[in-house]
């Protein structure tokens, strides 16, 4: 359980230690969080403390927070001057923060230099030399399969033996998913090790499933299985069954292929995009080719700083006026209809967003499309989970023109 150290000597000593936290050292983190043979760690990241404006400029007086949340705000967020985020920093929350930083850059509330500093500080605190000290540790909670989940697995495997033996990938995936879900219910949320799963950094339906439930469906390159898959019923913690070893070898081969060979398609695509678009750039700020052609679009937040025609006049959508147009069909200027002399595109057709983030040579950014497919191939190396979705007729018809 989290310790409440508000208004204690321990809290006072903590603030004395981190008074210069804009320049933290590994020695400082070792003093705060490292456990030793002779004694446990002095502090934990879930210790509850009390802060006010004297500790953080955006904190309200007598605010309850945790040491971990405070350090993230103090080191990473405070320099951006965007407030105090008193929340647990899951992947989802962190994604929202990054979006807020991106929006602040577009709105010219922060500079490119501040964004670069934000990225550097994030990498240093979360992935640098301090990660092994402040990160959650392993515990028996996530190193075993709870009794209820173990019983459920035996029950489901027995009930579906025929389908499992026939290498039905859907039933094998469903069993593994149900067992993992049951295991997560049995785990103690107060265990700090659960942060591995709660943060979203590790997917239990991939990693935990493989370690403690079963590897599950593996693509069959031999053609022996009519389903295209073979089911590995054993897991790494209990040890692989002899009959499963060839299929595990196939899984390793598929994994290596995903990162070592499949990525070449995305790489070649990126080179073609760079060759074709590398010379494209934006025209001078405020430039207007005078195009009278428009795209008909429904305005959403993604259209901020784009130009539309309102009563024959050009209007740039801003945070101040977007409520007037949001959800409405409008005529929007677009690079698709820009008349500016190649290889430039005018400011009005492109919009102001790219200028605001200091990006004018835009041609090389086109390979973001190949980057997405590249990441998908790399992710496939680590995640072999099969996901099923029942498509409705309505979902299919939307692709029919």
CATH topology of the largest domain: Topoisomerase I, Chain A, domain 4
Q: How widely separated are the two ends?
A: 57 Å
What gross morphology would you assign? globular
What's the helix count? 18
Care to give the gist of this entry?
This protein is of the alpha+beta class. The protein contains 18 helices and ten strands.
What keyword list fits this structure?
401 residues; Topoisomerase I, Chain A, domain 4; 3 domains; globular; four-stranded antiparallel sheet; 10 strands; single chain; alpha+beta; two-stranded antiparallel ribbon
Description:
It is built from 18 helices and ten strands. By secondary structure, the chain is of the alpha+beta class. It folds into three domains: 126 residues, no CATH class; 181 residues, Orthogonal Bundle (Topoisomerase I, Chain A, domain 4); 80 residues, no CATH class. Strands 6-9-7-8 form a four-stranded antiparallel sheet. The longest helix is centred in the middle third of the chain and has 18 residues.
